[in-house]
Structure formats: C-alpha cells, structure tokens
Amino acid sequence: MNDSFDYLETILYSLRALYDTYGYTRYKMSKFEEYDLYARNKDFLISDGVITFTDTNGKLMALKPDVTLSIVKNSPDLPDSQQKLYYNENVYRVSKGTRAFKEIMQVGLECLGRIDSYCVFEVLLLAAKSLLQISNSPVLELSDLSVLSDALDDAAVDPADRPEILRLIGEKNLHELFEKLTAIGVSAEKAGALCELAALHETPAKAIEKLSAVLNAPGYQKNLTAFSSIVTALSGAIGEEIVRVDFSAIGDPHYYNGIVFKGYVPGVPQSVLSGGRYDALLRSMNRTSGAIGFAVYLDLLELLENDASPFDLPAVLLYGEADSPKAIHAAAEAIRARGESLCVLKELPASMRAGKIYRLNHGKTEETL
After folding, report:
1. Judgement on whether residues 2 and 102 belong to the same structural domain of the protein
2. How does residue 39 score in pLDDT terms, banded at 50, 70 and 90?
3. Rounded to whole angstroms, what are the CA distances from 267 to 14, 222, 240, 303?
4. Residue, of 45 and 279, whose pLDDT is higher
5. Averaged pLDDT, 90-110
C-alpha cells in the first residue's frame, strides 16, 4: 500500500545503503537517556518538548528526542582519529509537520574526531546525495560561521550585539539589519556589505566572487579560502545546480562553528535536512574532538507522500479460477524479468490503484488499461 510508512521506509533504506557504501558504521542506542542530558543542552534540540518518566531507581529519564547528543555522550573522545557513524533511530518529539508528539523515524550521520577538509567535503557530499534520494531537484544551502565571524570582526561589531545581528541575518531582515548596524556605530559602507552578505543566495562560483569583494582585507582570507575550496569541490562533484551559498543558514551559533547547511526539496516549506560543524557542542560536553554531521527529518517528508505516486502499486497481475499456480508464477516472473515490480492478485480492490494491470487469460498475459 502507498501509505506514509511505506514511502518513508523506501527513502530510509536508500539512505542506509548510501551511508553503508561510504563506509559509515551503523550506531544503535537505547530508547532512553537521563533527562539531565537534554536539560543541559536544550538549545541544541529541535523541539523543546521532551517526554519524561521516572525510572525504577528514581532517576528522571526521557524518551530520546535527539540522536546526536546520545552519540556524543556515549562515544569515546578520540581527537587523533575518526569515527564515521550513521543512525536510523526513532525519536520522540513534537513533529514539525503536525505540532504534536510523535514517534519519528530519523536518519543521519556523524563524523567525530580529527575533522579535516575532506571530512567536511564528504559529509556535505552525502548530505547532497541524501537529498537526491528524496527529490530530483533539491537545494543544499551552505554558510560558514567562521567567514561570517570574520565579516562581523571587519565591521567591528561588539560581541554583545552579535546574537541580534545573527538573528536578523538568519531572517534575511535586511532593513532592520542595516538600521541595527548603523545604530551601534557600524559605518554605512560596512553595514551595506553585511546586508549584501545576508542577502546572498548564489551558486558557489558567483557567491565566492561576491564574498571576496566583501572580505578583501588580508586578515580575512584564510577562512574564506577554506570555505571556497570546499564548496567548489562540492559543486564539481554533485552539480552546481544543487548547491547554494546562503548565509541565512546559520543554525545556533552557541553550538555550530564553521560550515553550517540546510537541505530543501520541492513540496516541503521547511528544511528536511540540517547539519554542520559542531565542535562547540563537544566542548560544552568536555570533549576535545571535532564533529560534523546532519540529520534527515523524515516526518516532514510525509508532506510529499501524497504526491510520491498516484498509484498504490506500480503493477498487478490478475488471475482467475482456471489459472494454475504454475501458469500464474510463470506469467509473473516473465513480467518481473523485464524489471517491473509486480503484485499478483486474484482481483483488484476498488479502493486500490495500479499503474499497470495485467490479466492472465488462458495462459496468455494481456495488459489492460
């Protein structure tokens, strides 16, 4: 049947196969964690809602609303090597789609340890490939908090003012951004440059050209060069039409640093994938390793389920009382040998739709409309 579970399971299996191909190891975990883990890291959670209960030993426990925190907590701190993990877990939180508590299938991956430029590139590549498992025309938006921090340093924005400035950049609220910047003493020229950065939504080649014009002081070239190298490599590997540089994709700067990204597919008004470099989260948990990863929010893909296919089954073969099991099997295998997925039924229920209908008639297979 073409229900949301089947649709999401198909995507889930394709994502798992993708991550297996790249040598990521599946990570499995308990459904429960101590609530204190989430209470201490609320800003990192997608949803504030956490389902709690008291364990038999009196500890306050939670049905896990997030996987990354559990992985960081339960994995060894190995700053001189790399751990490449992926997960396929059910999490329990308020769904973005329904705004009600829900058990949600979530899949994603994490690379922890010594994070170099190739690790960042590979995770971005897998994020883009993950989106392509969902849609033929996705968009992966990239930003870099290190580059953005350089731009704020260049404009001499005080650290106390940066949270508000980052919020306005994240909202692409250019009018208020310019007013706020000039109100705190940033020159009109520098304020205009930051607004140009906030408005950016370009392919890597065009974006790098604009970024180089905004950040042209010698002291700000290191991070921009590193960012440019990665996004250029990514667009070359996956296609420039998928990749966009957009500095409104900033995530939470308390936890993310460096590359941050979000993925979108047609038909869903929110990002279905998000991730980034989150060394800051590891530091808050007394880890010395680096980390980068992303999650795919399968609950949002339910918005696509109704459009995934107009049919419940791609093809069916209908048989009658006079048809023998041997004849039915031979006819079905002949169709499957052509690469078609086929369900064999005696009759097709009125509520079910099939892309193709074959009928077995005295040993011969006929396709009907």
Report:
1. yes
2. low
3. 20, 38, 21, 7
4. 279
5. 75
